[in-house]
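User: Teach me something about this protein's shape.
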Amino acid sequence: MEILTEAKYYCISDLIGAIEVALKKKDKGPEATCRIPLITSQTEEQLFLSSSAKPVVKFLINRHNNKYSYTATSDDNLLKNIELFDKLCLRFRDRINFIKDVIGSNEICLWSFYGHGKKVAEVCCTSIVYATDRKHTKVEFPEARIFEETLNMFLFENRTGPDVDLLQATASRTGVTMSSSTAACVSDEEDDRRAGSTGAGSTGQSSRFRI
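Assistant: First, the predicted structure itself:
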């Protein structure tokens, strides 16, 4: 405040403006650096996906969708999925948009991955297991698969469309690899045939000499 008073006394307009802006931000309090939207409707979800310039990871969690009793490890795995989502949000929030859905479909725990507004992958963590007396809902924690799909989202980062050159290069490289491996197999078979033919020819010549 003392600096503001002196700036006003000496009529330093630029400094006055900068100080007032800083004081307004200070009065508002600290701003959150990691914000996760909660989806409230399908329309809102589609609007968010279509307008997002970054890849999107959606985490659907709704424990009350369950029709059967949970297995012994399901509750623990649900918590692990939630904790992993929080960690991924904190780590990759600058490169990926994360959203949470708690009112979604009949799923209980589902990860969805979107690039350029389209779903490119999905990881479902629930399944129905059959016991001797009744059915149970099993919740799993496929940590490696979730990490893999999250890292794959970087392929859709800062792009307006698919990387055609990368796709062609990958396809041609795969074709070359398959062709070379096929050629290698054929050459081995040909070598065997040639070796067999050579051996047969040598045997025939030897028999002729013996006669």
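Now, about its shape. The two ends are 120 Å apart (CA to CA). DSSP finds six helices and eight strands in the chain. If you'd like, I can walk through any region in more detail.
User: That's plenty for now, thanks!
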